[in-house]
Amino acid sequence: MHEVSLVFGIRAAVEKAARVYGLSRVFKIKLVVGQDLMVLPEAMAFAFEHLKRAPLTPDAVLEIEVRPGRDLLVENFEGEP
Amino acid sequence: MKVKLGYPVLQANQAIADRNREAFQRHFLLVLNLMSSPGAGKTTFLERWIRLAEDRLRLGVIEGDVATTLDAERIAACGTEVVQINTHGACHLDAGMIARTLGHFDLARLDCLVIENVGNLVCPADFDLGETLRVTLLSTTEGADKPEKYPAAFRHADAVLLTKTDLLPYVPFDLTRFHGTLSRLNPDAPVFQICALTGEGMEQWTQWLLSRRER
Ligand SMILES: Nc1nc2c(ncn2[C@@H]2O[C@H](COP(=O)(O)OP(=O)(O)OP(=O)(O)O)[C@@H](O)[C@H]2O)c(=O)[nH]1
Ligand SMILES: [Mg+2]
Q1: In total, how many domains does chain A have?
Q2: Torsion of CA B156, B159, B165, B168, to 10 degrees
Q3: Is B136's Cβ below 8 Å from some Cβ in A?
Q4: Do residues B99 and B67 make contact, with C-beta atoms less than 8 angstroms apart?
Q5: Which of B56, B66, B123, B146 would you call most buried, defined as having the most Cβ atoms within 10 angstroms of its Cβ?
Q6: For testing the chain A interface, which of B4, B9, B14, B37 should be mutated: the one with the most A CBs within 10 Å?
Q7: For residue B73, which ligand has an atom nearest its CA?
Q8: Can you give the CATH number for the domain in which A52 is found?
Q9: pLDDT per residue as tens digits for the range B128-137
Q10: Is B176 helix (H, G, I), strand (E, B) or coil?
Q11: Which ligand 1 atom minimizes the distance to the CA of B44?
Q12: How far apart (Å, rounded) are the C-alpha atoms in residues B35 and B97?
């Protein structure tokens, strides 16, 4: 249920990094979600769709990999200047 | 262009939780994070426990709820210092909310700060507040299968309280299954059977807590 606040944090981190790398369009974010966390990938994807804004493009995708453990990481993102 | 980031999303909360924990340790303060589903009996447990413990521990309480100050009023009626946090919809407390309330307490004059988290067996488990001990409550009316169904809240608990034991004769609660699951999920956590109406189990719980304080 706290996926919305997590997506805010993810978006803020990617926005900042995109600025540093001079990327104005981001079209993919790769996220790692630990299995032991109470984080639902479906709810994450839903929140992502609703919170998308520049530099994320309207069709930007959130790729989620579920792994054992309690990590929640933005592993990488893809974009262009 | 692909940018490798490795950004830990929960780190923002973790950094604040670590700072809270340092402040607590500086004041030799034992901080409890109470977690359970809504209505498992957290506030009623506190009301009863305060009466028993207040001459042994100087207590403060932080109440977390989506809305209302009802729980804080109940604690204030016991004569205990209390601050209410309203999350306005959020399903859990986070470390920042706790940090912002600490100014209301004179930490140097407290021995134990109890944080009653928002009633929710799922989300609070992911958010470290800086607490010393995580305490998960389950009431007998919820069913003995709940630790299997909501493992995170039980797996990472330092102690588990089974509440409303006065109702055991009236509800089909399988104690063997409950204890069996917990000893698999979290063999190190002690389990206390508590009744807030009669005070059953409160003394054992208090003794355990005092022993943790001396470490
Ligand atoms: N029979 C019985 N009822 C209890 C006991 N402890 C609490 N209750 C009842 O359970 C209900 C919920 O108790 P609360 O203490 O408000 O529960 P809570 O966990 O603080 O609830 P939230 O803060 O809303 O999540 C109340 O009606 C209490 O009177 C107990 O030991 N025995
Ligand atoms: Mg309550």
Answers
A1: 1
A2: 40
A3: no
A4: no
A5: B123
A6: B9
A7: 2
A8: 3.30.2320.50
A9: 999 999 999 9
A10: helix
A11: 15
A12: 16
Contacting residues for B12 by C-beta, under 8 A, at least 6 apart: A9
What ipTM does the predicted assembly reach? 0.86
For tokens 């989300």, the residue is B123
Q: Is the CB of B38 under 6 A from ligand 1?
A: yes
CA–CA dist A71, B7 (Å, integer): 10
Distance between CA atoms of residues A3 and A39, nearest Å: 7
> Does B152 reach chain A within 8 Å, measured CB to CB?
yes
Q: What is the pLDDT of residues A7-20, one digit of tens each?
A: 988 999 999 999 99
DSSP bridge pairs for B115:
B33, B62
CB–CB of B12 and A21 under 8 A? no
Name the residue at shortest CA distance from atom 9 of ligand 1: B41
Q: What CATH number was assigned to the domain covering residues B2-213?
A: 3.40.50.300
**What is the three-class DSSP state of B68?**
coil
The count of CB pairs under 8 A between chains A and B is 71
Q: What is the pLDDT of residue B197?
A: 97
Instruction: Report the nearest atom of ligand 1 relative to the CA of B37.
Output: 25
How many Å lie between the centroid of ligand 2 and the Cα of residue B22? Answer: 27
Both structure tokens of A18: 């995109």
What is the value of pTM for the model shown? 0.83
DSSP B104-153: GS-GGG-SEEEEE--S-SSGGGG---S-SEEEEEEEGGG-TTHHHHSHHH
Closest of B125, B124, B8, B15 to residue A36, by C-alpha: B125
Domain that residue A23 falls in: 3-80
What's the token pair of residue B3? 């940018």
C-alpha–C-alpha distance, residues A14 and B37, integer Å: 34
